[in-house]
Amino acid sequence: MYRGDRFSWGSKGAALVIVCLLVVGANQAQKDGQKDGKISSNQWRIADPVRYENLSIFPVVSRQSADTANFATLDESLSAGDVIITEGGAETMRRSRDGRPVAIPEQRGASVNQLVLVNRGSKPLLLLAGELVSGGKQDRIIGKDRIVPPGAAPLPLDVFCVEAGRWSSGVQFAAGKVMVHPSVREQAAITQEQDKVWAAVRNGTVAAPSAVPGLPQPGGAPGQTSQSVTVTESTLAGVIATEAPTQSYSKLYKSPQVGVPTDAFAEEIRKRFERATAGLKGEAVVGVVVAYGGEVAWSDIFASPSLFERYWPKLLSSYVVEAMVRPHGSEQPSLNDAREFLKPLVGHETVDTEPSIYSLRQVTVGKYVEMELEALRPVEITLHVLKVHHAS
Predict the structure, then answer these.
(1) Is 361:344 a contact under the CB 8 Å cutoff?
(2) pTM, entire model
(3) At what angle do helices 194-203 and 233-242 cross, to 10 degrees?
(4) How far is CA 220 from the centre of its chain?
(5) Over the stretch 255-267, which tens digit does the pLDDT of each residue have?
(6) CA angle 115, 118, 123 (to 5 degrees)
């Protein structure tokens, strides 16, 4: 114990100081966690699932959030004119926001699997594998998660075609406002084979048949069976023959036979999800874990609730399409199944990086794949974590 002229430290005083230091340290640690934007599974809590028909969606909630306001999304940027995407070898001159010309270098010609992107906005552009851009000579989807800085040179952008029967005279692309469903998305992000992307668009799913179809589904309306929302391969073949001869993803999955039940299904899930997450206190939704029947198959998790909300509408539609085209069974996953799915993978790791811009880390263990996109500038932020049970 120390004694001085004006004060005295006793055991109670020392204990009080220790408690204060612990509280300050805990608060600072939480602030630091929010500041550096690192995502880790110990920051997440998985809430009770929202179920309907053969689809179960587990909200992933967190008390922490990174600042993601400085990142632009593809749909926002294309709609605002901040991003231009063209075929290779297309028109070579565009104007920037301040009127200066932006040159897009000539290439040898248009390519199925490569476009040219110019980010003339003021924010880094976030791209997610499976996002659709419409127009050009064929509709395409983004091939991998990545970040495109503002003011960068025109970027050769890796893509996959989701419209096998058209190669017309189009040049520029518009916002598709669509995320393709997981069976197609995994072929682009993981398998990276154009023929398998086309096959997944045409056939609907790459998942193997599971339980006997037609059984009542947990979470559905009383007396409702899985057959009421099933979209079969023959249904898709009929739509291709009558309404989507070019096998355009948008036309195929927005047709009356597919799009109308998809919208109704998605609206039911949206309402249930909103009710289930309305009472969160001190937490917010940053992502979801998705299961079809008894199989936990997919997760999308973001650095902040606001970033999740910007993607949620088109992600939800994509999960619903997958539920409708997958074989149906009567099983349903537990909360513990979802927790097990999100455990970090330890296995073969590859890293795709563009120095000072982004890093895309991929870990593969058997049929499980985990992908983590990290922005490197102006601060390091893990923007998106994707985990997949590779079905094909």
Answers:
(1) no
(2) 0.83
(3) 100
(4) 26
(5) 999 999 999 999 9
(6) 130
